[in-house]
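ligand=magnesium ion
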Amino acid sequence: MENHSILTVVVPCYNEQESVPLFYRELVKLNTFFEDNSLELELLFIDDGSKDGTVSAIRELKNIDSRVHLVSFSRNFGKEAAMYAGLQNAHGDYVVFMDADLQDPPSLLPEMYQGILEGYDSVATRRVSRKGEPPIRSFFARMFYRLMRKISKTEMMDGARDYRLMTRQMVDAILEMGEYNRFTKGIFGWVGFNTKWLEYENIERVAGETKWSFWKLFVYSIEGIVAFSTAPLTFISVLGVVFCFLAFFMIIFTIVRKLIFGDPVSGWPSLVCIILFLSGVQFFCTGILGQYIAKTYMEVKKRPIYIKNEKNCF
Ligand code: UDP
Ligand code: MG
């Protein structure tokens, strides 16, 4: 093992002016751990276009600690973009993602690093409880993971957080996935490598408030499905075949009934029901198709994942 390694802590921040100093105070408690393991800390904040005093809060830290660095975005690009920027700008032999709100407890880091020493390429965390979260949100989150396990080959853990320590080779593998529609929970699983899982109880954020509304989470989950599974496309193809068979039998049935009983005109209500139902099914299927086309459209544009505001970077 090298006797002097760099550990980059990547912290995506969006309007976290209250959390940033609290986070820093918590993280420096690990200074002795870093020294004991000859780890050089690189504390890399990513400001995801915050509109509050996040940037100046980080600048204040820089004044007292030269290990602090900042990459600032020109606007809000989302946490996924922030994490990608973190990996791109990290110099570490090891890189760990941590939320600014202390929901990813820094005190777990020594145990995570132990996993790396044991030979794992990544040590990930999952929360085993969702206390403090609206029950309906927990319910849908569980449903999402259950569905994903069925329709995607990529391994995704229920309750997995983005709090994860990785070796350089895993970081480089993730960086090679330069897709625009990023769903990191899937990307982690997709790149493979040996992963050790640590579990902990959910912790509520120290300050500020969550940036995730129920609707945002819903849209995000669809993104995850589209990014890591084509099962919905298979599903609508099968649906099409099933309806063709159904139609075939209905035609036979109608002809036979006409030949035996006459009067092909009656049955207007059932006809309306069938038309309404089938157009619903068609819209649904077109919608699914549309989701994939939309993602493809965004992908072929090859827009940058984020844009730096150089003035605020150091
Ligand atoms: N975050 C970000 N960009 C965003 C939204 C969130 O960088 O557009 C950061 C946020 O500052 C925090 C982390 O991502 O450090 C997790 O966000 P949050 O706590 O709102 O999510 P939750 O923990 O509720 O899932
Ligand atoms: Mg949080």
